[in-house]
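Figure S4 source data
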Amino acid sequence: VIARTIIEEMHLPVHLKTVVPREGGRSDAFGSKSQIYEARGIIFKILVDNHGIFNGSDEYCAKSGGHAIRGSREYLKLCDYTNSRVIIPLQTVVDWFGFRILASAKVPLMSHTFEGSEMHEVNADLIMGTADRGQHVLNKNRDLDSEMGRIANELNLAKHYVKGESDLGARSLYSSVDLRGYENINGNFCLLNFWRSFPSEHPSYTSHLPRSHRGMSIFWRMLRPEFVAKFCNPLSPDANTQMAADLADTALHQKNISDATNFLLNKIIPSLADEIANMKLERDKFGGFGIDVTAVMHRAGINIRHLGIVRAHFWRKIDGGADIKFGTSRVVTHKSFIAQGVRRGSKLKIGQDYYRVSTDRKKEFNSSELHLDRPFGGNSCSCTDEVFAGEVSNDENSERVRALLLAEMVARTMKNIARQHLRSLCLREKCSSEHLMRIILADHLNTLTGSNSNTEEMWTEHLYFGLSERFGNCIISRADRFSLFDRTRSMLVYMVNRFSIMLGIEIKEETIKSFSHYPDYYHFMISDIKFVHARTKHNIYSAEFADAMILSARSKLTSTTSYSFEVKFDNPLVYWSFSDSKTSSYAHNEGSLGEIMGGKYSGKEELE
């Protein structure tokens, strides 16, 4: 509720806000002097990029909140408060009206001391990390360093050297320089700022994704903890940053990051694609054929941004046909195979035989000609249309899986476009009413179904380029740009469902039934949206939450199965529990005969 209030009052002057921002700090998009708020022991931070770290993208800045939740969750798993002095704050992110807020429990960094009758606030000492934007890096407590070493060993993070801009010498850390450690008055260590807990991908090895200006993608394209934990070498969270450059171990850690990125792309992703290809799919399109795309990807340690390259491993037909002669490796293409995602080394199926596109740089590879890795063994053919490209061992499910993954990417891209429109509306109109949000969301639902007047422009321009920006150039060929809308019709119900879930839209049941029967060009009205909920993610480890729920259930069971409960369950005529007050002279009967069988204490009894 507080996070929603902060967002809804962003356009108001400070003196009219319900929750007042902190003094100082950087100005936000509305002219406030801070993006940080505090209420009820919780720190709220609006995640917008006013400082340029994310190349001006609020969408990428919002990802830092997700990284913070993920990082603090992994640290929280390993910090048992009964055995560890390390305190990790509970955190959650709240998505509302296109904005994201990171909410963190306030940790005990301040203490109070008295000098005579005067009370003074004492701040906890920063003993690890940097708090001055990289000017100085600290690591001056051996006990905390030992704890961080234990945690890093579990997370597979490497000890590495870093050097602040104004530091004379380098220091070693187990964590990112942005992770700050404090020692409070009780001798406990409080950790803050988890958004760079894990290393980033090496941008030079993800050629399928667009390059970012100034190489800033290292601040939002992080490796997932599931992948980092199982990689063969420990990885440095600072390997790609300037603060770890030109030091004794720089080359080693950069090589490990490069190897990790290559391993992810060339081993983990093909392995997952093959696993999906051999799954037994259900018929239900609404539920994605029984595949939870997000869960499957994250379990394997693969980021959602690599959905495009996962999809490229599944078999698809190459349009245009080709001329091939027996005994030669030369293939003359009638349509560009390159524009359809074929690269050097790609696997092709021609007839019933499998080949690879030659990786020999001396052989031609262009829009009208390519060479196979060995001579063609089938009958010579002109304009054969039996050419397929893919990698997985089983092509039975390829068509449905490709449709599912494309639908997932379209839904996610449309989600981000809708959030961008909501943010722009809030900035332009200085208003963030729920009614306006319903109008925008209904408009984007209709763009998915095709009933919106600007559907063609949205699909051929915003969605097409949005897909390439977020998932890479291997999503859909340039030639298929104008058929993108038609290619996704079979998964329309799935896309609307995923779009609604990701934006917290609750559609009326009767509307869902009507839409499910006739989805094409269905027109959603504002009144079809029952509720719009704020979306939240937290850092509470699910196993710990489950343990707490079990303990709560056991305590309730114990309270209802006491001795008194067991006696009363048999419905006795007379039951004196002798639990009356010590000053009472009357003994109540709790049996079925009631107070008629009550009695009096003689005064000589001894009650335990």
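Figure S5 source data
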Amino acid sequence: AEKRHLRNQYDQMQNEIKRLSKDRDLEISTKKNTETELARLKAEATQLESQMASIQSELDSDLTDELNSQDQGELERLTADTTELRSKLIEISNLRAEAESK
């Protein structure tokens, strides 16, 4: 009776080991699939980001091309005016700081 009891325990332990091995194998397989899917999604995201950058660049180029020569002249003039005003503001700010420190 004692041997039978030990044999049953042994068989139960073997069955438990088999079950745990199957569970482990399933988890490993699932993890590999998840990692593969994650790598695929990362690659897809990188590709989409690249496509978006390309489209944005194309749109910017198209917008510049759409400006007629008068608009381009106006844009260049405004850019120059803005740069000049920015320089004057910096100069005024520096003079003010210099005057306040005296």
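The chain has a mean pLDDT of 86. The CA atoms of residues 29 and 54 lie 38 Å apart.
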